Amino acid sequence: MRRLILLALVGLGAQLVDGSLGMAYGVTSTTLLLAIGTNPAAASATVHLAEIGTTLVSGASHWRFGNVDWKVVAKIGIPGAVGAFAGATFLSSLSTETAAPLMSIILLTLGLYILVRFTAVGLPKENLGKPLRKRFLAPLGVVAGFVDSTGGGGWGPVGTPAILASGRLEPRKTIGSIDTSEFLVAVAASVGFIIGIGSEGVNYAWVAALLIGGVIAAPIAAWLVRHIPPRVLGSAVGGIIILTNTRTLLRSDWIDASDNARYTFYTVIYVVWAAALAWSFQQYRKHRDEERRIIAEAEAVAMAGGVPDDKATTPAV
């Protein structure tokens, strides 16, 4: 019973972070399951089964608070499901340990860009509201879905920073769309695992515990995304990307840093991250009206199909 309560609390905490920052449910939950002796395939299968329920509730909550761009959900979610199914059925035995550090370097770079961009400059203005193209979202979805199913998490860590870095979708809609589309990924990965390994090693009581915790947290997280200032949200996402990928690099065979070195890096990151959040909040308060105007203009551009009103023309038949 104690273990089930712990799993429920982990599910609650992981979904609270995932639903408000667009990542971490799979990584957090899978890490715990591996730590208590679950084999990697069964751990990933357990998490994805729980995510079917948590992502459904999370998506509905984000939709309720206006955090979802359904065009983005379709363009990235369907390719993501394909990648997740392939990873779960045919490639789940492929080790991603070698590729993990390289991917972490790429994501760390994106995280640094996002943190600096949102902290120092604020919301992007040039491309905000313009449509995200399928030629960008489809490959991103396939890669993120594959990484998610083979590594036990990765949909948010890969998808969220890439979309934020494009500057075309405001943070709350990026997070809401990624969380909503993850339902398709969770279903596809779960089906793939059932085909590949059956129910071997999957403890459905653990699935239920993770699910209960995640379902409780999902509406709270969606509400937070709706009310946290976009500039602060961008800085928060950038910081969590930097922290998680620095952790992966320092623990990888490429570096294999000592405990003292790792804790020193973590301390520096936490201090810089806290300062960035404080600065972002201060600048948001100073430029609140401007940021609201930018968001309103971006939403108008999005409703016009990505074309500003002063440049809109009659569409060709």
UniProtKB/TrEMBL annotation:
Its protein name is: Probable membrane transporter protein
Query: What subcellular locations does the record give?
Result: Cell membrane; Membrane
What InterPro entries does the database record attribute to this sequence? TM_pro_TauE-like, TSUP/Inactive_protease-like
* Family per similarity comment: Belongs to the 4-toluene sulfonate uptake permease (TSUP) (TC 2.A.102) family.
Q: How does it sit in the membrane?
A: Multi-pass membrane protein
Entry's Pfam families?
TauE
Q: Which organism is it from?
A: Micromonospora avicenniae
Where is it mostly found?
A: membrane
Give a Gene Ontology cellular component term annotated to this protein: plasma membrane
Q: Does the keyword Cell membrane apply?
A: yes
Q: Where are the transmembrane segments?
A: 72-94, 100-123, 181-198, 204-225, 232-250, 262-281
Q: Which UniProt keywords apply?
A: Cell membrane, Membrane, Transmembrane, Transmembrane helix
Q: Does the keyword Transmembrane helix apply?
A: yes
